[in-house]
Amino acid sequence: MELGERLADMGYEILGPAHSIAEAEALLARETPDGALLDASLAQGVSSVPLGIKLHAKGVRVAFCTGYDRVKDAPPELANAPVLTKPVSDADLKAGLEKLLS
């Protein structure tokens, strides 16, 4: 939620947050965003990579936010997705999203 607030303060329109893959899919059934910032690893070790693949297939640009320097098990279609390493500064967050959406 804090990240969503930071993004809103930067002028981005936020869809969510979604606290699970099911919540994210419900949001995405109603609206298609220009880009998505996904936490790479969710509660109980659930990966957001499958959701990233679905988004990519719909033409949505995807970036990951993670405590690691890469996304585990990233498939070729997400190999070039930006990875923002937590804790991410406002400057790095803004630069990463500008790159993602350009």
Indicate the proportion of strand residues.
5-15%
Mean pLDDT, all residues: 91
The tally of helices reads 4
- CATH level-1 class: Alpha Beta
Q: Low-confidence parts lasting 5 or more residues at pLDDT below 50?
A: none
Your description of this structure?
- This protein has a single domain (2-101), classed as Rossmann fold, CATH 3.40.50.
- The chain has four helices and three strands; from the N terminus they run ααβαββα.
- The protein has helices spanning 2-9, 21-30, 49-57, 90-101, and strands at 35-39, 61-66, 83-85.
- It has a three-stranded parallel beta sheet, sandwiched between helices.
Question: Could you name the key traits of this structure?
Answer:
single chain, 102 residues, Rossmann fold, 3-stranded parallel sheet, 4 helices, 38% helix
Secondary-structure blueprint:
Blueprint: H1 2-9, H2 21-30, E1 35-39, H3 49-57, E2 61-66, E3 83-85, H4 90-101
Parallel strand pairs: 1-2, 2-3
What does this entry show, briefly?
The protein has helices at residues 2-9, 21-30, 49-57, 90-101; strands spanning 35-39, 61-66, 83-85.
